[in-house]
Structures are given as C-alpha cells and as structure tokens.
Design a protein that fits this description.
The chain is mostly helical. The chain has four helices and three strands, in the order βααβααβ. The chain is elongated, with a radius of gyration of 17 Å.
C-alpha cells in the first residue's frame, strides 16, 4: 500500500465544473486498499473552509456561462433544450468524494 498526502490546494484543484476523471480513481484505489491517504488536521480544517467558497465560485461560473448562452441563443433565435440547463450535482458529488476520502484518511496531529 502506498501512502499519499494531498494538500488543501490540490484538493481544491481537483474540483471542476465538469465530470472529474481523477477523483473516481482516487476513490477506487483507496477503497481497494491500494493507497492510504494521509492528511493533517490543518488540511481537513482548511478544506472544510474552502470547499464552501469554491462550490459557490463554481456554481456562479456555471450560472454565468448559462446566462450568456441564453442571451446568445435569443439573439440567434435558437432554443436551448431543458436538458442543457445547469446541473450542480457534479460539484456536490466531487465535494462528497473528497469529504469521504479525507474522513477515511489517517489524520496526523
């Protein structure tokens, strides 16, 4: 088993507006005991503070892009299907995975 430590900035950088290709791998390797995530109480504390701020930043970014798309679509007389409306579930899912990985990590004091 390999021990890895991921700092707060790296956890934040793993958050994305779209489907994340890296988090499911970390989750799989951790669940199958290939890696052991080692953390520090300060990293967990910082993550809990920053995840709310970055969730807000990502949701605002997605909403703004969608609003701009609507404006352009109206000017061009195009219709946008409901299926293309913003979906924030992916961001929530990524945060949930990171929370689980950190909660299952070996926390150093």
């Amino acid at each position: 088993m390999i021990n890895i430590l991921i700092d707060t900035c790296s956890w934040i950088n793993l958050l994305s507006e779209e489907s994340n290709k890296l988090l499911p791998h970390l989750e799989f390797w951790n669940k199958n005991h290939c890696i052991n995530i080692v953390s520090h109480e300060k990293i967990v504390e910082e993550w809990n503070i920053h995840k709310v701020k970055h969730k807000k930043r990502l949701t605002e970014s997605i909403s703004t892009k969608y609003a701009h798309t609507i404006v352009v679509a109206k000017k061009e007389k195009l219709s946008i299907p409901e299926a293309l409306s913003p979906n924030f579930d992916e961001i929530d899912n990524q945060i949930k995975i990171i929370d689980e990985l950190l909660s299952n990590s070996q926390v150093l004091v």
